[in-house]
Amino acid sequence: MASRNERAAIVSIGDELTIGQSLDTNSKWLSERLTEIGLTVVEHVTVPDDREWLGATLRRLCEACATVVVSGGLGPTADDLTRESLADVLNEPLDEDGDSLRAIEAWFARSSREMPRQNRVQALRPRSGVHIPNPNGTAPGVHVTVLGAAVFCLPGPPSEMRPMFEAYVRARVSPPEGRLIRTRVFQTMGVGESEIAQRLGGLMARDRNPLVGTTASAGMVSVRIRYEGSESAERVDRLMAETAADVERLVGDVVFAEGGRPLADVVIDRLRRAGQRVATVESCTGGMLGGAMTALAGSSDVYLGGWVTYSNEMKGWLVGVGHDLLERHGAVSEEVAAAMAVGGLERSGADHCLAITGVAGPGGGTPEKPVGTVWVGMASRGVGEAGGVECRRFLMRGERETVRQWSVTSALAMLDLRLRGRSELKLLRQQAP
Amino acid sequence: MASRNERAAIVSIGDELTIGQSLDTNSKWLSERLTEIGLTVVEHVTVPDDREWLGATLRRLCEACATVVVSGGLGPTADDLTRESLADVLNEPLDEDGDSLRAIEAWFARSSREMPRQNRVQALRPRSGVHIPNPNGTAPGVHVTVLGAAVFCLPGPPSEMRPMFEAYVRARVSPPEGRLIRTRVFQTMGVGESEIAQRLGGLMARDRNPLVGTTASAGMVSVRIRYEGSESAERVDRLMAETAADVERLVGDVVFAEGGRPLADVVIDRLRRAGQRVATVESCTGGMLGGAMTALAGSSDVYLGGWVTYSNEMKGWLVGVGHDLLERHGAVSEEVAAAMAVGGLERSGADHCLAITGVAGPGGGTPEKPVGTVWVGMASRGVGEAGGVECRRFLMRGERETVRQWSVTSALAMLDLRLRGRSELKLLRQQAP
C-alpha cells in the first residue's frame, strides 16, 4: 500500500446518492484522472447531506491521504453543506468572497436573469480557503489545506466539475518525486475469469510489481497490469514490457484489444482500416448498439446508421422481414435475425449489417425461448455465400438492462471476430442453436 | 442522524473501481433496496483489492452501523481478498464448505466444463460464517456477524449480486421496530435549482421531518421529501401528504412527474393513455433515444421504432431529407430537424415523431453552431397545421456524452409538454432560434 503522500481519496456528497436515487459517476472519472497523475486512490466515500458525518469523513481521509477531492454539496440550497463542514473541520468562519460574488452575479447577468437571493451563499468560503473558478455554473469550488492534506471541493454536476478539475486541480496535485504509476489493460473474450487466472498462474501473485489483476464484466474479462513505485523509468518500462509479453504469451489468443477502450471503438478502428462500413438493425436493444457505435466522435465514416425495428410492423416495413417469417418462427429466431441483417445490408449499402432480436425480459419468456435468449444476425458483402450471413444464439442471465448490454457486446464481438478472420471462435454465453 | 441500529453501510471492492476502470453501479442499487426496507444508508465506500485496507474499513463500518453489505472480491483469483479480510477481522480460519464446493462443481457440470482448480477457493468461508447461495455464478456469498453487525458479502457482477440480495439478504435485514422511512420524489423541468429552492423556502429547513431536498441533474431538478423516524404510520402518512401538498402548491407548475421514474416512462404512460404511438429519427444520439424508450419492458404498444440517420446519406435514403436542404442549411439546422421528424412521421404511421440532430462534440463546432448546439424536431398528426411541426434549439454545455443525454431528455420533454398541452413552456438550456 502506498504511503500517505502517494495516497488520494475521493468523496461524493448527497442524500440523492446514499438513498440510491442518483448514480455517482464522478468518483470513477476522478479516479481515472488521479491515477493518470500518479497517485494511488485508496478510497471513494459517498456520504449524505449531513454536516457532522461529512466533517468526520474529511478528518479521517485527510489524516490518511495527502490529497482529497470532494464533489457535491456546493449548491445554493439548505441541503448543500460542504462549505459549513469545511468551516467546522478547520474551526474557521465562512467569509464572503467579493470576486466570487461578482462572478456569480455576472453568470446570472449573462443569461439575463436576476440572481436569486439564495445563490449568495455560494460566494462563501472558509477563511483560509481560496475559490476555484467555475465557468459553467454558479458554484465556485474551494481549495483548502486540512491537517496538511490538499482538499479540493468541486460542484457535483459533471459538466461543471470536470472542466474545473482540468483547469485548476490537475496542475496542483502531483505524486512524490520519482513515483511512477503505469497501467496497461488487455481485454479478452471467449473464456471465463477462472480460466484466464489459471493460465496467468503465478503472474497474479499479490506481491509482484507490476501487479496483474483480472475483472469480469459484461461477458468480457480484462487483464490489468499495474506498476506503482519509484524505480527508474527505464526499469519500469522494461518490467511493464516483460509482464505484457508474459500476458500475451499466456492469454494472447483471446485478447481482442489493448487499453480500456470500448469494444465499439476497437471494431470501428478495424472497419476504418479495412475501408468498410456497417449498419445496424435493432429490436430488443432499441438503439443501444447505434448508441455505442456513436459514443466516440468521428465514427460517421464507418457507421452509417440503421433501423430500430422494435414493433413487428417496423421489422416488415423498414427492412422487409416477411410477415410469414414472423408468424412461423417468431420475432426472436434465427430466421428473423438473418432477414433483419440481410434487409439492413441491402437497404444501407454498408459492407456489414448487425441485427439483434431477443427476449430482454422481465416478461415474454417461454420454455423454448426463455428470458435472455438473444439472436444476433450478421450479414456481410463478399463473404462466402448468401451475403455471408451468420447467426448466433446467446442465452444471457440477468436483468433486462444486463441482457441488452450483453447483446450489444455480443453483436460487436461477432463482427470483431469476422474482421479478424476468427469466426470459428466461440463467444461466452453462446448456446448451440 | 440515525442511530447505529438504523444505519447501514455499503462497501464495493476492486482495483478496477479505485483506478477508475469500471463504474460502480452496485452501491446505488443496494442503497435503493436498503432505503426501501427502512434503513438509513450513511456511507458507500469503495476500496482497492487490499486485504488490510478492506479489513480496517470493515471494522470501522461495523462499529458505526448494524448492517453492512459488501460486493466484490469473491472471485476465484488471487486479487479476490474478501474471504481473507473477513477471516482477519474475525480472527478465524477459513474452512472449506462441502455444500458450496459441490454447488460450484455442479455449476461447471451444467455447462459441461471441468471445474478449474482455481475455483476451489470460492468454497472457503470464515468458520462462523454461512454461505449465501448463488444460482447465477460460482461465487457463494458470505453472511457473518462482525462486532455485532450483520455483514453480507456478495459477488460483484450485478446479475449475480441482485438476485442473491433479493433471495437471501432482504428477509434478514430490518429496521428497529416502529421505524419508518418514506420517500416521495417530484421531478421538475423548466426552472433552475435556486429558483426551486427560493420557492420552497422554509420547507427546506434541515431540522424538518419530513426533510425536503433538491438535486439538479441532466437539465431537471428533482424535489425529494423524506421522512425518517418512529412516529405512528398514520401521523407519518399525514405529514408526508401535507408536505407533498406544500411542494405541489409551490412548484407544481413545473412538476412533470412524481417518483424517480425516467422521463421516457412518464411519456410512454401518457402516450398509452392517449392511445398514441411514437417513432424516432436520431442523428447525433445514434439510437440513445430509442434505447431510453425501450429501457423498461412493455413499451412496444407505444414505441414503434425508428431510424438512426447518422450519416447524411442515411438522412436522405431513410427518411427523405433532401440533399439540397442538407447543402443549404447543414445537417444541424431547424430545416433538417423538421424534415427528419416529418419524414419519420410519414414513414412510420406513428402519431408523433421525434428527431434529433446536433453537434455533440468534441469536434465539429463552428462560431454559428458551437459544440452543444442541438435541434430537436417534433411532428404530430392532427396538431395544428403542417403536421404540428415544432423545432427547438438547445445549447448544452458539457462533454459529448452529457450533450447526447441532454438531447434525449430535451426531446422527451418536448413531447411531454405537447401531450400535456403545455408547449408554451420554455425548457432549460433552450435558446431562441
Fill in the keyword field for this structure.
homodimer, 433 residues, alpha/beta, six-stranded mixed β-sheet, 14 helices, 18 strands, 37% helix, 24% strand
From the alpha carbons, calculate the radius of gyration of chain A and give it in angstroms. 26 Å
Q: Total number of β-strand segments of chain A?
A: 18
Looking at how many chains there are and whether they match, the oligomeric state comes to homodimer
Q: Averaging pLDDT over every residue of chain A, what do you get?
A: 91
Largest beta-sheet characterization of chain A: 6 strands, mixed
The largest beta-sheet of chain A arranges its strands as 2-1-3-8-7-6
* Separate helix tally of chain A: 14
The helix fraction of chain A, in percent, is 25-40%
Structural class of chain A: alpha/beta
Gross geometry of chain A = globular
| Poorly predicted runs of 5 or more residues of chain A | none
Terminal CA distance of chain A: 49 Å
Largest interface: A-B, 118 and 118 residues
| Strand content range of chain A | 15-25%
List the helices and strands and how they pair.
The structure is a homodimer of 433-residue chains.
Chain A: E1 7-13, H1 15-18, H2 26-37, E2 40-47, H3 51-64, E3 67-71, H4 82-90, E4 94-96, H5 98-110, E5 124-126, E6 130-132, E7 141-146, E8 149-154, H6 158-169, E9 180-189, H7 193-200, E10 211-217, E11 220-229, H8 233-251, E12 255-258, H9 263-274, E13 278-282, H10 288-293, E14 303-308, H11 312-319, H12 323-329, H13 334-348, E15 352-358, E16 373-380, E17 390-395, H14 400-419, E18 430-431
Parallel strand pairs in A: 1-2, 1-3, 3-8, 13-14, 13-15
Antiparallel strand pairs in A: 4-5, 6-7, 7-8, 9-11, 9-12, 10-11, 15-16, 16-17, 17-18
